[in-house]
Design goal:
The complex is a heterodimer of chains A (about 130) and B (about 70). With about 130 residues, chain A is mainly α. In chain A, α1 runs antiparallel to α3 and α4 crosses α5. Chain B is mostly helical and about 70 residues long. At the A-B interface, α4 and α5 of A face α3 of B.
């Protein structure tokens, strides 16, 4: 049966874990490599971008999971949660960006992704509750 | 959207899970449609109507035109 025991979301979730593992490994390698003064110039950028690659992969997997989900209700829940996650991230980062002009401490941009992930997960829970 | 899904299901002694299996959707979908919180797409509405041997209008009540 589609959308019951093994939903598209669950199938894609299994593919997300190896991607996240790749992220952790690449992040460790990048932090270690950029710490070295031997890595200079364009190579620094090439190494610096490495951890972002699996994260972009995760976003692509989530987008594919939503469109491959055969159950239209589950798809609607995902899409709505995705929208809330996007909106929350947009609002938080825009507000913080202006607060930084006023002297608030700088937050590195790589925090945008965890913020988006966390807010989307909270939204999935909240949207499901509403349809109970 | 108000509908008679719960009544039609009860007449046949089907659980939400039974109906979900027949419609090839999740049980959560059936629950959300039954409680009027989620409106099914036209193809799913047709599947529901066919399953119960009725028309869409006799199952779903269009309360927006009143």
């Amino acid at each position: 049966m589609p959308a019951r025991g093994s939903s598209a979301a669950q199938r894609y979730a299994r593919r997300i874990w190896p991607t996240m593992l790749a992220y952790v490994v690449l992040l460790a390698v990048t932090i270690w490599a950029l710490d070295s003064t031997a890595v200079r110039g364009a190579l620094r950028y090439a190494i610096g971008v490495l951890p972002a690659v699996p994260l972009v992969g995760v976003i692509a997997l989530v987008a594919q999971a939503i469109s491959a989900e055969p159950d239209e209700f589950q798809r609607a829940v995902w899409a709505e949660a995705f929208s809330w996650g996007t909106a929350t991230t947009m609002v938080a980062t825009t507000v913080w960006g202006f607060l930084e002009m006023a002297g608030a401490p700088h937050v590195p941009l790589y925090w945008v992704f965890p913020l988006f992930t966390a807010s989307t997960l909270v939204a999935i829970f909240a949207v499901r509750q509403r349809y109970q | 959207m108000k509908n008679r899904l719960k009544v039609l299901r009860a007449e046949r002694n089907w659980s939400q899970a039974d109906l979900a299996e027949r419609l090839e959707v999740s049980r959560q979908s059936v629950n959300a449609i039954e409680t009027g919180k989620f409106d099914p797409s036209l193809p799913l509405a047709f599947r529901i109507a066919r399953l119960f041997g009725q028309t869409i209008e006799s199952i779903f009540e269009d309360d927006s035109g009143k």
